Amino acid sequence: MHDIYIISLNTDGSTFPIQKIGLSNVNPLTYVFLRFLIATIFSFLLFKKGNFLYSFILGLVLSIGYITQIVGIKFTTATKAGFITSQYIILIPLFAYIIDREKINKYQGAGFVFSIIGSYFLSGGIYGFNFGDLLMLICAISFALHIVLITKFSKKINEKDLLTYQFLTVTIISFLTSIIFKVPMNINIFSFITIVYSAFIGSIVVIYLQLKHQKNIGSNLTAILFLAQPIFSAILSLLLLNETFTTKQIFGAIILLFGIVVANLNKKNIFQN
User: Fold this and answer.
1) What is the per-residue DSSP string for 143-174?
2) What is the average pLDDT value for the chain, to the nearest integer?
């Protein structure tokens, strides 16, 4: 079970460089709209409508995450996007405490400190922190909340009933946002192929597996499994986009990953899950 989950998370990391490539010829909001429109259609064919309320809440949070991610990636590198977004792993314990009153342990507290320091260096310091990086941080907050809500809602509702309305909510919000900002719907075949890939892999497959397995393995082990995602994203960005790290960014990435590891050193929870 864990092997399948790890593979899905690694594959989800591939969406960062794939989206970066696809966005070269299409507006970011158009990209989000078409991605989740496709995901909604096929989710309905596979799983039908499902539960509205819980799916709508998940979709609302996911909308903020994906819109800030897809817009932010236009103003930063795919490598930085992958690493900064990975901070939602550090934020998971915070939202778990707010929602379920689960206390943050000393390891998680230390992880927050290392995460902040790592992000500072990864972003190139104060002067290197741009608008795209800020949007990625907002994205990280949204994804952290989304993961905690997945754990909570999937214990109440079957996973297949939490997909269609969730994707439909993102589709509607991104479409309305596109209208407000008068975004053109122009798209070429190459960008459309990357959209289809992101719809199936990044949306239907990954989120379905999250809903199915996360309720069983718990949030702590889920966070550890997510460690592979930013690494996979960075490797693909290097191979596909020829992006490189400066010495300062490499140092920041190492600290950030170290912070993520430290935050999940609660061995008792790991072995229980």
Assistant:
1) HHHHHHHHHHHHTTS-GGGGSHHHHHHHHHHH
2) 77
